[in-house]
Design a protein that fits this description.
It contains eight helices and six strands, in the order E-H-H-E-H-E-H-H-H-H-E-H-E-E. The chain is α/β, with parallel strands linked by helices and 191 residues long. It is globular and about 50 Å long. The structure holds 6-O-phosphono-beta-D-fructofuranose (F6P).
Length: 191
Amino acid sequence: PKTFYFSRHGESEFNVLGRIGGDADLSPRGRMYAAALARHFNEAEVHDLHIWTSEKRRTKQTVAGINATSEAIPALNELDAGVCEGYSYEEMQDKFPQEFAWRDQDKLRYRYPWGESYVDIMHRIRPVLLELEREDNLLVVSHQAVLRCLLGYFMNKKPDELPYMNVPLHTIIKLTTSGYKTHMEVIKLNI
Ligand code: F6P
């Protein structure tokens, strides 16, 4: 059996403001999650633990205290919201009502102008999934949309379900895989 851990980054300053995308720092609460995550993994002494993050500040800050080597992988960056980067959903609805409606009608395939769709993410994470097959005791710290696609793959979700999967903040999802069987454990850290 192989073990993989997945987590979103700790709460960011953009999460607090309800803004999407960007490259914000962790909020005070997000920093508390980073500390709790470090305590969790440093105490667990996982053999040969290593970490993959995205290139964003918030995922790197989330793993900074963990005693393990980490690598930043561009394919783990959050969905690129193109012209809508940095907006809240309310502002989007206000400034781009047609885009907002289209996204609502087909969230899986909808591509932001100058940005990406969930289908685009599914394509760009394929090499990551192949690479994952060769790994063990790996912690992946990424973002909501990308984790929906990664976890959805392991959980055999239908593509149309992916954009709606619940992947909460401040939670470790531990997957143990052997062959085609995957066991999932949800670890909520108290912060
Ligand atoms: O709000 C956090 C976030 O990671 C955004 O950066 C991203 O655009 C969004 O979630 C993806 O979630 P949804 O597809 O539900 O808008």
